[in-house]
Each structure stands twice: as structure tokens, then as C-alpha cells.
Amino acid sequence: SLARSRRQQMMFAKLKRATIMIQSIVRSVQKQAVFSNYCKAGTLIQKHWRGARYRLAYSNLRSCSIMLQSLIRCRQKYLRYIILMKGVISLQSLFRGILSRTKISHYRVRSDAITLQSHVHGTLARNNLYKRHLAARCIQTLWRKLATQADFNVYRSSATSIQSLARCKIARMRYLKFLWGIVLLQGVVRGQRDRSECRKYHDAATCIQSSWRRSRTQMQYVMLRLAIVKIQTSIREAKIHACFSRKIDMVVNLQRVVRGIMERRRLMRRREAVRRVQCSWRGALARANYKR
Q: Which residues touch 28 (CB under 8 Å, ≥6 apart)?
């Protein structure tokens, strides 16, 4: 019995060490799973944060592009307005020349010298005005050309910067999608591998636990069987003792009843005998008195 208990203790110690080792492995696997979940949550938060940042940058770029478009449209409208103003000014000059010529025709009654002088002065003034107008138009065209070239360079540089930012954003989004796909694939593969290892550890732990529980239940069954046998013997002894005591009580009661019946019958016989003696005695006395 001592050797058997010693072997059982050694087996229990081995099983305990194995279960502790398996529990440590399972806990490490659980910690790795929790860490992987934290990593996934962190990547998800980073994805949302980068998406919000890129959306903000996209909204800023969109507002800048809208402002740039509004400036370009304002510039185009301004150029159209300048062209229309030039046409209006040319028409005004033509109408004013026609009006001046009509006025001169109305004043033809004046002397030829005055008309000739007025014509000469008018032609000279018109020539000077035309030259000044041409010079002003040349200056305006050169200045507007320089301004439009500067604006075009600014717009071109801003458009190239916007295009570069948009292309960088598209490339970054593609890279993030590719990286997220790789991370998901790695997570799936690692999760499958960890689940297979955890399943193996779980099967081993289940086998060990089943063997340990079987041995423990067997020991408990033996102990319970011995205890039940002892309890049954004690209960049977108690039942036998109680039954014997009940039988003794029944026998005693029966003896008491029988003895009571016998005593009552004996008492009734004695009373009957006494009554007969009394009757005979009284009859004798009565007969004696009657004879007297």
C-alpha cells in the first residue's frame, strides 16, 4: 500500500508539472492572441487616422483648386472685359469722329481757312491720339503678357504640386491597401498556425486531464465504496437493532396483554366463587332464621 501510494504521488506530481507546463503554454498563446488583437486594433486606428488626415488634405487641396479655378475664371472674365472695353472705345472713337465731322460739315459756312485749320488740327490731333493709343495698347499688351505669364507660371507650379500630392496620395493608398492585405494574410496564416498548435496543446492537456481525472475518480470511487460499505453495515446494524428492540417491545406488550387477560379472568372467577359462597351463606342464614 505504501509503494502504491508513493507511485500515485509521483504520478500526481508528474501530471501536475505537465498541466502547469501546458497552462503556461496556453497562457503564452493567449497572450500572443491578445497582442495580435492589439496590433490589429492599432493598425485599424492608424488606418482611420491616416484616412481622416488624407481626407483633410484632400479637402484642403480641393478648396485650393476651387480657389485657383475661381481666380482663373476671374482672370478670364477680366480679359473678356478688357477686350469688350477696347471694342467699345474703338466704337466711341468712330462715333465721335463721325459727330465731329458732322459738326464740321454744319459749320462749312465759315471760312475755308478756319475749316482747313480745323481739319489740319483735327488730323494732327487724331494722329497724335492714335499714336498715343497705339503706344498705350502696346504697353498694356506687354504688361498683360508679363502678368499672364507670371500667373500662368504660378498656376502651373500650383497645378504640378497638386498633381504630385494627388499622385503621392494615390500611391500611398495603394501601398497601404497592399500592406493591409499582406498584414491580413500574415494574421490569417499565423492565426491558423497558432490555432493548430493550441489545438495540439489542448488535445494533449485533455488527454492528461482525462487520465488524471480517471485515476482520481477511481481513487474517489474506491474511497466512496469503502465509506458506503461502512455506512451500509452501520445502517444495517442499526436497523437490526431497531427491529430487535421493536420485536422485544411487541413481545413485552403481548405478554402484558396476556397476563392482564389472565389476571382479569382469575379475578372474575374469584368474584364468582365469592358471590356463590355469599349466596349460599346468605341462603343458609335465611333458612335458619325462617325455621326459627
A: none
61 contacts 165 by C-beta, under 8 angstroms: yes
62-108 pLDDT, tens digit each: 777 777 777 777 777 778 778 777 777 777 777 777 777 766 665 55
Q: What are phi and psi of 205, to 5 degrees?
A: -65, -35
pLDDT digits (tens, 9 = 90+) for 21-71: 777 777 777 787 777 777 787 778 778 888 778 788 787 777 777 777 777
- Taking CA atoms, 189 is separated from 91, 115, 186, 192, in Å, by 82, 106, 5, 5
What is the SS3 assignment for 268?
A: helix
CB 10 within 8 A of CB 215: no
Instruction: Report pTM.
Output: 0.27
Alpha-carbon gap, residue 198 to 190, rounded angstroms: 12
Q: Do the Cβ atoms of 25 and 200 come closer than 8 Å?
A: no
* Crossing angle between the packed helical segments 112-291 and 2-106, to the nearest 10 degrees: 150
Reading the block at residue 262, the C-alpha cell is 389472565
